[in-house]
Amino acid sequence: MLDALRRTLTAGPPDPLLGSAKRPFVRKLPYVVALILIAALLPSSARLMVRDYRLDTGLALVLAVGQAGPLLLAVRRPLPAWGISFAAGFLGAWFTRQMSLPPDNPWPWSAPVTIELVILMLALGLRERPRVLVLVWLLMTAGTVMFQTGVHPPGNGSSAVVLVLGGLLMAMGVALRDRARARRALAEQETISEAERAQRTLLEERARIARELHDVVAHHMSVITVQADSAPYRIAGLPPQASEEFGAIAATARESLGEMRRLLGVLRSDGRGSSAAERAPQPGLDRIQQLVEATVRSGLPVELSLAAEALAADLPQAVDLSAYRIVQEALANVVRHAPGALTRVSVTTDGSGLTILVVNQPADRPHAPLETSGTGHGLVGMRERVRLVGGTLDTGPLPDGGFRVAARLPLGEDAGAGSGTDGSASTPPTEKDSPAA
């Protein structure tokens, strides 16, 4: 404990009490309280020592400054402040030890000294470690016992007030400090957990997209392999050099396909192997009608407008899959956050891009939402899919209380470029983006 006391006394100035508060007034409050206490206790302490304890005026003033002045130092360094105040109170009791005091005069600690010491002990409880507090209380007890039994006849109870009340205040300070520390740790952990959860959701969605993208790319690589292998038999009179070139193309395609399958094995590695759902054909625009019908059966009124040109268009597979997933996630958000709300789904194309619009109106009657707070994790998948094909995504609440999801997916050469024209596509959505209609 002595070593802990030495390190505390020699350490640099710590942050003041309430120094981490956000409001400037709260940070200045300990200084204001300390100055008020000094202004009230210093003159009363000096007057009492002159009038009731018969000390010289100069000595009384010096002792009063030593007893009350450290209250300001206690804002940053409560342990040295307590040491100075305790020493000044000890000297005051020593100088009055042989005087015949009236029975109603507190001794060895006068009333102002008692107030100062218990306040300093509360400040100690808020800042110092328990073993330092135990040492302080033992020193207080030793000094009090010395005066009460060896120097002066027993006092009238001021020492018991300091020891009992001061000990309780130190314990209360420790409890308040531990509670504040636990709350800060909990808030930090919640912030870290939310960030980790958002990052995990983003990575899981990217892995899912990668698995689905494998099925799209693997098909094309297989077609390239078959075409390159069969070219010498389908094309008559092919020069030997061209046949060798086609063979090299087929070998490269097979090697690339093998690398993709090994990469997919890593992505799908969860200790259980690939599920049948992962090996199933990926959905596209032709499955949106079934998706809407299933949603309607669940109790959500949905109106679908699916342009025939969009169904007939030769869409890149990544765009086709992304369009289905965006509509699927948008409808799932409506079911979770606004059950019973009329929802309109529109899918159109102008030849250069595919436009997807999902708008839900406020529910015509109150419904209990399945989720009361939106985490925005569903929008992470939408943004990643839009970013994958180089499109744009616009989401947000409507003035009347509904919610809108609008996506533009380019076709042709720009599809799948992953240019990320929507600047926020690769970042997790903020809270205001969460569907909460």
From TrEMBL:
<keyword id="KW-1133">Transmembrane helix</keyword>
<feature type="region of interest" description="Disordered">
    <location>
        <begin position="409"/>
        <end position="437"/>
    </location>
</feature>
<dbReference type="InterPro" id="IPR003594">
    <property type="entry name" value="HATPase_dom"/>
</dbReference>
<dbReference type="InterPro" id="IPR011712">
    <property type="entry name" value="Sig_transdc_His_kin_sub3_dim/P"/>
</dbReference>
<keyword id="KW-0808">Transferase</keyword>
<dbReference type="GO" id="GO:0016301">
    <property type="term" value="F:kinase activity"/>
</dbReference>
<keyword id="KW-0597">Phosphoprotein</keyword>
<dbReference type="Pfam" id="PF02518">
    <property type="entry name" value="HATPase_c"/>
</dbReference>
<dbReference type="Pfam" id="PF07730">
    <property type="entry name" value="HisKA_3"/>
</dbReference>
<feature type="transmembrane region" description="Helical">
    <location>
        <begin position="29"/>
        <end position="46"/>
    </location>
</feature>
<feature type="transmembrane region" description="Helical">
    <location>
        <begin position="107"/>
        <end position="125"/>
    </location>
</feature>
<dbReference type="InterPro" id="IPR050482">
    <property type="entry name" value="Sensor_HK_TwoCompSys"/>
</dbReference>
<dbReference type="InterPro" id="IPR036890">
    <property type="entry name" value="HATPase_C_sf"/>
</dbReference>
<keyword id="KW-0547">Nucleotide-binding</keyword>
<keyword id="KW-0472">Membrane</keyword>
<feature type="domain" description="Signal transduction histidine kinase subgroup 3 dimerisation and phosphoacceptor">
    <location>
        <begin position="205"/>
        <end position="270"/>
    </location>
</feature>
<keyword id="KW-0418">Kinase</keyword>
<feature type="transmembrane region" description="Helical">
    <location>
        <begin position="58"/>
        <end position="75"/>
    </location>
</feature>
<protein>
    <recommendedName>
        <fullName>histidine kinase</fullName>
        <ecNumber>2.7.13.3</ecNumber>
    </recommendedName>
</protein>
<keyword id="KW-0902">Two-component regulatory system</keyword>
<feature type="transmembrane region" description="Helical">
    <location>
        <begin position="132"/>
        <end position="151"/>
    </location>
</feature>
<keyword id="KW-0812">Transmembrane</keyword>
<feature type="transmembrane region" description="Helical">
    <location>
        <begin position="157"/>
        <end position="176"/>
    </location>
</feature>
<keyword id="KW-0067">ATP-binding</keyword>
<feature type="transmembrane region" description="Helical">
    <location>
        <begin position="82"/>
        <end position="101"/>
    </location>
</feature>
<feature type="domain" description="Histidine kinase/HSP90-like ATPase">
    <location>
        <begin position="322"/>
        <end position="412"/>
    </location>
</feature>
